[in-house]
Design goal:
This protein has about 170 residues and is an alpha+beta fold. It has helices spanning about 1-25, 105-110; strands spanning about 45-50, 55-60, 65-70, 75-80, 85-90, 95-100, 115-125, 135-145, 150-155, 160-170. The chain has one domain (about 30-170).
C-alpha cells in the first residue's frame, strides 16, 4: 500500500513538472525581434537614462558571497535601435552584444508572468571602484510603464542570477 502511494506521488509530481514546463515554455520566448507597431516595440526605440545605486556580488568560496555597493547613484544609459540592438552603460561599464528579446508569449501574458521584453548580453568593465568582475553576463527584464523603462538588471552566472539594480529610466 505504501509503495502505491509513493508511486502515485511520483506520477503527480511528474505531471506537475510537465505542466509547469509547458507553461514556462510559452512564457519565455528568447528570440531576437524587430521592434515595430505589431509587437509594441516602437515605444522602446530611443535613449533611456536614469541614476541608480548598484550592488555587485562575487564569490568568496562555495555558497559564500561578498556584496559591494556603489554608494553613490550611478548613471544608467540604454540605447535601443529598431533592430533591437542595445548599447549603453551602467556606471563605468559598457554594454556589449546586447539585444532586446521577447520575454513572454500569450500564455505568460494571460497569467501575468514575466515581462514583455528583456535585454540579454554582456556588461564589460568595472561598474564602479570596488567592483571586481570585469565582464558580466546580464539579463534585464523590463516593461514600459507610464513612459518609463522599468525593470531590473541581473548578473547571470550559469543558472544563478543576482539582481544588481532596479531600473526606472526616462526617455531622453
Amino acid at each position: 500500500m505504501k509503495s502505491k502511494i509513493n508511486l502515485l506521488k511520483l506520477y503527480i509530481g511528474l505531471f506537475l513538472f510537465f505542466c509547469i514546463g509547458l507553461v514556462m515554455q510559452g512564457c519565455g520566448q528568447s528570440h531576437s525581434i524587430i521592434l515595430d507597431e505589431s509587437n509594441g516595440g516602437t515605444a522602446l526605440i530611443g535613449t533611456w537614462s536614469g541614476k541608480q545605486s548598484v550592488q555587485v556580488r562575487y564569490s568568496t568560496g562555495f555558497m559564500k558571497f561578498r556584496f559591494v555597493e556603489s554608494g553613490d547613484s550611478l548613471v544608467t544609459l540604454i540605447q535601443i535601435d529598431k533592430e533591437g540592438k542595445v548599447s549603453g552603460s551602467i556606471g563605468n561599464a559598457k554594454m556589449s552584444d546586447c539585444r532586446v528579446i521577447k520575454n513572454r508569449g500569450a500564455v505568460g501574458r494571460k497569467l501575468n508572468l514575466a515581462t514583455d521584453f528583456s535585454i540579454r548580453g554582456k556588461l564589460e568593465g568595472f561598474i564602479f571602484e570596488g567592483d571586481t568582475i570585469a565582464s558580466k553576463d546580464i539579463a534585464i527584464p523590463f516593461e514600459i510603464k507610464s513612459d518609463k523603462l522599468q525593470g531590473s538588471v541581473f548578473h547571470k552566472i550559469g543558472m544563478d542570477v543576482f539582481p544588481m539594480l532596479g531600473l526606472d529610466l526616462k526617455k531622453k
